[in-house]
Amino acid sequence: MIAELLFFVFVVILWVFEFVPPYVTALLVIVFAPVLGFVSFNQVQECLADDVIMLFIGVFVLTNVMVKHNILKKIFLRILPRTPIDLEKVVLITSGFTFLISAFLSNTVVTSILLPIVLILANYGCDNFKVRLLLSLTFFSNLGGLLTPMGTPPNGITLANLRNVGVEVTILSWFLKAAPVSLTCGALCYLFLKFIFPVKKNHEVVLANDTPLFESSSHKGAPSGFTITEILLIGAFLACVFIWVITVFVPNVPLWFSPWVVCLVLWVIQTTIPRKKVVLLELSDIQQIPWDTIILFTGGLVLGEFVEQSQLLGFLKTAEYFTSHPIMAAFLTVLLSNFASNTASASVMTPIFAQIQPSFGMLVGLASSFGFLLPVSTPTNALIYGTGLVPLKKLMVTGLLVDILGLLVLALFFRLGFLSVW
Predict the structure, then answer these.
(1) pTM exceeds 0.85 for this model
(2) Bridge partners (DSSP) listed for residue 85
(3) Cβ neighbour number for residue 120 with a 10 Å cutoff
(4) By the 8 A CB rule, do 197 and 128 touch?
(5) Which of 3, 78, 117, 201 gives the lowest tally of CB atoms within 10 Å of its CB?
(6) How far is the C-alpha of 320 from the C-alpha of 135, rounded, in Å?
(7) Which element (helix H / strand E) includes 113?
(8) 208 φ, ψ to 5°?
(9) Residue 415 pLDDT > 60, yes or no?
(10) 322 or 377, which is more confident?
């Protein structure tokens, strides 16, 4: 018991204070947990081949392909009207697009792609408009990520730990549980930011032909038309989502099937159509997968196996405090996510509480994405703060209030039974 406790505390300290990169800590868990006899080597191998790991590898490959061809930027620019547009509509379009796309692609990637566009749009309004537009980008990328298991890393870790306790989770079942929380938080966050950072009513801007957003376009005042490569990639993305939906009704189809089969089709097209016409999935897209995130995932899964087999779980169950007050567990998770990686907090908290009760695991898994207080809380916060347009005080105040808002919404839907076992 003492050795297990020391190992667990050691891992938590390394993840929270980041004395070494988080993926290095994950590697320590993967290597030394079986060496010390806390888990078996076979269990580590099963974690390496887990469905969630395979799912994220496929999603990361598709993300790399989409980023390489600037698909998101082109779609977003086509959504923006070229006629006089109210500043409020600019915020609404940006928030909605970020929220939706972040459900399927990495929220950090989405923020990175849209940030240069948002910075140009921010020049058309007052200081309130600039701050609100940038905060909307980081907040809605994280809130939209709650919608699906692949939307944000903590979701994948939560899904894996729920399956580890015998709760089978499909993409559709996750969506049905998480959507009420995500949509409610999104709507309230939009209204909250609108109240805190009001913009002038009826203040319109015209995205003219010489706007930097469109100056490189082949058609004045509008982004250039989609190439055959871009059309194929958009079709592949929609096909991936469609397959995810229909496989819900087909038994024994793994979660990773959809992105992997789409990647396979893209690879076949890439190798059969002359290279000059179509450039789709290349070897570099696979090589550029964020393997550090995959290692961090795997470390979280191995830690989950460790918690399941250790006596630590029995100690927590006998404590009875968190079993009687699960919202406090969510509060501690949010607190941890604000000062450490949300992926690390999910890796620590979800294995414990999923073992106590699956609905607790879902609760703390969603809570781990509510880390908006500091620039270091999430990569998206760091990107926004790095622009120099969002003062630290405003980021901290709004981030704290959104964290509190998220906890209240989680508490409400948990009490209503929305996060109960499937």
Answers:
(1) no
(2) 205
(3) 12
(4) yes
(5) 201
(6) 39
(7) helix 107-122
(8) -75, 175
(9) yes
(10) 377
